[in-house]
Each structure stands twice: as C-alpha cells, then as structure tokens.
Amino acid sequence: MSVLSLRLPNSIHRHIKEIAFQEGVSINQFISSAVSEKISAISTENYLVQRANRANREEFTEILSNVPKIKPVNGDEL
Question: Which run of H or E residues covers position 12?
Fold first, then answer.
C-alpha cells in the first residue's frame, strides 16, 4: 500500500470527516472509495468512447431494421 500526502482546503476536509463519520468509515477509507469511484467513471467513459468510435451507422441501421414493427406494451410507450 502506498502513502500519499494530500493537501485539502479546510472546508473539504471538514465535509469528508463528517461524511466518513456518518458512513462509519475512516477518512482514508472514504477517500480511497471516492478515488476508486472516479477511476471507474473515467474508465467507463473511455471504454464507451472507444466503442462509439468503432461504431458503424450502416450496420446499426441494418440491425434496427430487423426489429418488428409492433405496438409497445401498455406502459412502455414513453
């Protein structure tokens, strides 16, 4: 495990301390979890951008043309 020295504004530190206490975790656990969530969000966004760049509109349109033209089930209209 690595050690990281981090400077935070007092207001952010206060909020982290309050939330970590409410959640029943240490400040280190809270920050570790928050950083992990951010890494996951960025990784997911990068993955989706890469997938979108490989997309082919003609293939997409062809696949959609195979969807049957039926009325939606009641409640699924929106």
Answer: helix 10-23
- Reported as half-sphere exposure (CB side, CA atoms, 13 A), residue 65 has a value of 6
The number of distinct structural domains making up the chain is: 1
Per-residue pLDDT 10s for the chain (78 aa) are: 899 999 999 999 999 999 999 999 999 999 999 999 999 999 999 999 999 999 999 999 999 999 998 888 888 877
**Cβ-contact 29, 18 below 8 angstroms:** no
E strand or H helix at 65, and its extent?
Answer: none
| Nearest-angstrom CA–CA distance, 13 and 32 | 14
Whether residue 78 lies inside any domain: the answer is no
Residue 7 in domain:
no
